[in-house]
Design brief:
178 residues, single chain, mainly alpha, globular
Length: 178
């Protein structure tokens, strides 16, 4: 993992921090949501571009999570990159899953000792968990659709990272439940 402040590429070591957390979602769902978010932006250059055309355009970067965990933003990725990304997640990251948002936030709060001592803080947490997530504002892809399968193939490393993270999420429950 690399520090991205001010564009530097300083490796983060165990001396830099103990643990970080992340909230992951299925790579195909993330891309479909990104498409709808991008096309709804005011002044979007492609508000009428279909999802299929958007996926095939230069707007989509494959394997976003793997690339950012390993700082391999451009060029081809290798199995060594995906293994390095898994190791970063395993050693340094408390995993949260968007599909298990309430449990993920509960774990983050417990692990990092986040305190919600005021009514305003409780309201903020409730907003994060429930109000701010605009679900089903767009269509979803059927898992057997050719476009869904193409997105899975384009993001094969991120799919592997996601499935690994689901297992890690289950394993990390041991930190909270004896």
């Amino acid at each position: 993992m690399y520090c991205s402040c001010n564009g530097c590429a300083t490796p983060l070591t165990s001396a830099s921090f103990q643990r970080m957390f992340t909230m992951l979602r299925h790579p195909v769902d993330r891309l479909v949501s990104l498409y709808f978010s991008e096309t709804r932006k005011e002044g979007s250059s492609s508000p009428t571009m279909s999802l299929n055309k958007w996926v095939q355009s230069q707007n989509v970067k494959d394997n976003w999570v793997t690339r950012h965990l390993t700082n391999q933003i451009d060029g081809p990725l290798t199995t060594a990159d995906v293994e390095a990304a898994k190791e970063i997640l395993r050693r340094q990251c408390l995993i949260g899953l968007l599909d298990s948002k309430d449990e993920s936030i509960r774990r983050f709060s417990a692990f990092f000792k986040f305190q919600f001592n005021s009514d305003k803080a409780v309201e903020c947490q409730d907003k994060i968990l429930h109000w701010g997530w605009k679900q089903k504002l767009h269509t979803t892809l059927s898992m057997d659709s050719p476009l869904y399968q193409m997105l899975e193939e384009m993001n094969a490393f991120d799919m592997e990272i996601y499935y690994f993270s689901q297992k890690l999420f289950i394993h990390q429950a041991n930190l909270f439940y004896n």
